Amino acid sequence: MKPLTVDSVNAPADAGIPWLAELRRQGLEAFQQLEMPSSVEEEWRYVDLDFDLADLSLADGPGAPMAPGEYAIPSNGHATIVDGTVVDVDSPAEISVMAIGDADPALLADAGGSAIPADLDRFAAAHYGFGGDAIVVHAAKAAVAEAPVFIDVQAVTPGTLSLPRVVLVAETQSELSVVVVYRSPDEGEFHVVPHLQATVGDNARLKVTTVQAWGSATTAIGQQRVVLGRDAHLHHGEAGIGGALGRLHFIVDIDGPGAHSEITGLYFGEDDQVLDYRAFINHRAPHTTSNMFLKGAVEDASHSVFTGLIRIEEVAQRVDAYQTNRNLVLSDDAGAESVPNLEILANDVKCGHASTVGPLDADQRYYLMSRGLDRIHADRLQVRGFFEEAIGRMPHPELAEPIRAAVNDKYVRAQEEGRL
Amino acid sequence: MTTALEVRDLRASIGSVEILKGLDLEVGFGELHVIMGPNGSGKSTLCHVLMGKTDYQATGSAVVAGHELMGEDVETRARLGVAAAFQYPTEIPGVTLRELLEELAEQRSDGADIRARIDEAAVRLDATRFLDRPVNEGLSGGEKKRSEIFQLAVLAPRVAVLDEIDSGLDVDAVREVAEAVEVMRGPDVGVLLITHYNRILKYLKPDRVHVMVAGTIVQSGGPELAEELEDSGYADLVAQFGGVAPEAPEGDFLAGL
Ligand SMILES: Nc1ncnc2c1ncn2[C@@H]1O[C@H](COP(=O)(O)OP(=O)(O)OP(=O)(O)O)[C@@H](O)[C@H]1O
Ligand SMILES: [Mg+2]
Question: Residue A116: CB partners within 8 Å, gap ≥ 6?
Fold first, then answer.
C-alpha cells in the first residue's frame, strides 16, 4: 500500500491536463498546510472525524471488481473505477466515455471551471495531491444520448483510501444522462474522497443520478460541483443509502442567464450512520431558477444533517430559488438537523425554503388505520409515501425500483427487528 | 338479534374540555339515523371517538354488533366493522388510493372480495379518476367526499358513520352519494349520517333524526324533525340545553349516572 507522500503518485494519468496539474500542485501544498477539520468548526460540527488522512494509504492497484449490484441498469456506455483506478470503459457511439489518460486535453480545456477548489479542505487537497485517475464522459456539441451512461465507482481493498474522480462535460446544446453508483463491501473499512464535476454548456442538459450505496463501514467524504451555462439545465438525483459516514459537499454554480437547477434527493440513515449534506446553490446570473427537494429518514441512532445555502449575487435579478428539506425521525435516539440558509444580494428575486423534522404523522396513521390497516402496515405505507414524493421527481425512472426497495427494506427490517 | 350500534353514556374530552357529555344512541341493523346539530356541538367528535382516535380521553360504552369498541385500537374497530367517512379527510402524500386499498386487500383474508368491490364501486361511484392519485391530495372538496364514500363502499362496514358526506357536493353528486348510502345500507348494516342539510334526506328515508347540542342528544324524532329544524334552527334548543356556555344546564341527560 502506498502512503500519502509526494512520490506515491509519480505518474498520474491526468498529467497532460494543465488545470489538473495545477490543482495537483495546489493540493499537495494545501495538504501540508490544512489540518483535519474538527467538529468545533461550524462546517463540521455534526461530524466526528476520528482519523487523519495522513495515516491512510492508497491501494497498490485496483482490487477485484464487485459483482453487478442492484443498481445496475440498462445503459448506453459504462465505466468502472475500482480503488481509484479506471478498470473498464465502454464508450457508446453518440458520446465519449474514457479514462482521463486517454482523453484529448483539448476536449477538457473548459472542464477546469467546474473543479472543486484544491484548498476547500484537507480532503479536497488530498484528492488532488494523491489521486490521479478519472472517468471522463464527454458529449460533443449537440450530441444527444437518451439512455444513461453507467459509472460504477467501487472501493474494494479493505483498509485503503481511494480518490476516484468523475468528470462530466456536456457541450453546447448536448443532452447527457449519467448514473453514478458508489459502492463498497460491508466487510472491511474504507475511506473514500470521491469527486464529481460537471460542466454544462449553453443550452445543454445534464441528467445525473448519484447513488451512495457504500458498505456499512465506509467513510465517504464526497465533493461535487456543477457549473451551468446560459439556458443550461441540470436535473440531479441523489440517493444516500449507505456508508458509516456519508458526507456530500455539493456546489451548483448557476453562471449562465436562464439556467435551471433541479435537485431531488433522499437519504435513509440506520445504525449509527451519519449523513451530512452540504448544498451550495449559487445564482450568479439573472433569470436563473433552482429547486431542491430533499427527503430523509433516520432510525436507530443515526443522524442526518442538511445545510443548504442559496446565494443570490447582486447581478442575479429575477431569480426564483427554492429549497425543501423534510425529515422523518423514526427512533428516539435518531436525529435530524435541517439548516436552510438564504443569502440574497439582489433585490428582485423569489426565494424561499421549507424545512421540517418530525416523527411519523399521527393523523395519517389514524386515517390509514381507520381503513383497516394495522399500525405496522399503516406506518410502512406512510414511509413509502414519504419517499415516493422524492422518487417520483428523480431524473432516472429506471432507478426508482431499486432505490424504493432500498429505503423501504430498511424500514421494514427495523420494524421486524423491533428497532423503532 | 344484536343492534348495529349501541352507545351508552359516551363522554369524551380533550384536556379539561369535555366535548361529549354522556351520549346515548341506538342504531338497529338496516336502520339509517341522522344526527344534526349546531357547529361545535360534538358531531365529528362522536365520529372520531367511535373510530378510536387517540386525541380524546373517552369513557362509556359503544358496542358494534355485540362487540365493545372502547379500549380497542383503530384497526381493531375497523375489523369489527366500524368505518367512518370523515368531514376533513387526511391527505396521504405519495400513496395512491389504489395502493392503500390494495395494501388492505393484501392484509385481509377476504382480499379477493375487497378487490372485487374496488372494481365495482370505482365505476359505480366514478372514482376511477382519482384511484391513481395520492389519497385526498389535491382533490376538490366534493372529490374528497366521493373518495370517502367510495372507500366505505369498498370496506363494506357493519356500521358506517358518515360525517358531512354531503357537504360541498353539487346537486348530482348529492343524489349519487345518497344512492351509495342506500346501496351500503342493508339488513346487516347500520348507518349514522351526520349532516347540516335536508337535501340529502330527499333521497334517503331515515328511521330516526337526532339533534345534538353541547355534546348530547337533546331531541329525537322521525324524518319530519329534520324539516322542522330547517325552519326553526337550533336557537331554542341551544338556549335550553346550552351550546358554547360551559355552565349551561344539562337537564336530565346526566340523570343515569
Ligand atoms: N382536537 C381538538 N382539539 C381541541 N378542540 C377540539 C378538538 N376536536 C374538537 N374540539 C372542540 O370540540 C367541539 C366539538 O367539535 P366537533 O368538531 O365535534 O363539532 P361538530 O359538531 O362536528 O361541528 P361542525 O358542525 O362545525 O362540524 C368544538 O368546540 C371543537 O372546537
Ligand atoms: Mg363536524
Answer: A124, A127, A195, A197, A223, A224, A225, A249, A251
Of A28, A29, A47, the closest CA to residue A37 belongs to A47
Report whether A178 contacts A399 (CB < 8 A).
no
Residues in chain A within 8 Å Cβ distance of B98: none
Residue-range definition of the domain harbouring residue A115: 2-256
Ligand 1 pocket: which of B10, B17, B19 to mutate (most atoms within 8 A of CB):
B19
Residue nearest to atom 17 of ligand 1 (CA): B44
| Segment A79-115, tens digit of pLDDT | 999 999 999 999 999 999 999 999 999 999 989 999 9
> Does residue B174 sit within a domain?
yes
Q: What is the CATH number of the domain that holds B194?
A: 3.40.50.300
Structural domain total, chain B:
1
Q: Name the percent of chain A lying above pLDDT 90.
A: 93
What's the domain count of chain A? 1
Touching check for B202 and chain A: CB below 8 Å? Answer: no
B40 lines ligand 1 (CB under 6 A): yes
Q: Answer whether B44 contacts ligand 1 (Cβ < 6 A).
A: yes
Question: What ipTM is given for this predicted complex?
Answer: 0.93
A312 inside domain: no
Contacts of B97 (CB under 8 A, 6+ apart): B127, B130, B131, B132, B133, B134, B135, B147, B151
Cell numbers 445545510 correspond to A307
Residue B235: pLDDT band with limits 50, 70, 90: confident
Q: In this structure, is residue A392 part of a structural domain?
A: no
Q: Is residue B249 in some structural domain?
A: no
Give the count of beta carbons closer than 10 Å to the beta carbon of residue A348: 10
> Is A271 within a domain?
no
Tens-digit pLDDT profile for residues B49-92: 999 999 999 999 999 999 999 999 999 999 999 999 999 999 99
B62 found inside a domain: yes
